Sequence to fold (189 residues):
Amino acid sequence: MPTDQPGTTLTSSQFYPFHISDSLCLDSLKSADATKFFSLVQNNRDHLERFDPFVAQYQSVKDVRESLGRIQTLYLKGKSLSCGIWDKNELVGYLICGLDWDDKSAKIGYGLADGHQGHGIISRAARVVLHHAFYQLGIERAWLTCWINNDRSIRVAERLGFKREAKTLPVDPARNIAYESYRYNLYRD
Fold:
């Protein structure tokens, strides 16, 4: 059972794996998943890069392995609930959830293979992770940004109860371009 003390070290056996259904499972991302994650990116690069600027940095299995190692370290330190989304043992997506204990907030982002969209997978995965962050870990606010032309992501945010609070113009660090986004917040009850 996960700890309810903010900032406490978590281990992967305390929250993940989490089975959403008979076939759908969330599990922490590990360096050992690098080949599968890279395959997910390569097979969906055009689709994922349209809305996730960080996908561009994954040019090799080595790049992914290093990134997943950092993500796993953050998870073990209680600073992340990032996970892979698995459907029948196939990695079909990811949910990034960084925890800021000073602000008691969580920033989320997600990506899903093109062929798995439209089935509520991201909504279900995010709902599980947010519930854990709010009610087990004591996070008070979650936030995300969506490009203004990413209708599917906007619908996910609104379906989860996020409220649009601002329009922003962040810079995409991988491509050095600015893009219009909406910022959404969700507060714990």
About this structure: The helical segments are 12-15, 34-49, 61-76, 121-135, 151-159. Confidence is low (pLDDT under 50) at residues 1-13. Residues 56 and 143 are 23 Å apart (CA to CA). The longest helix spans residues 34-49.
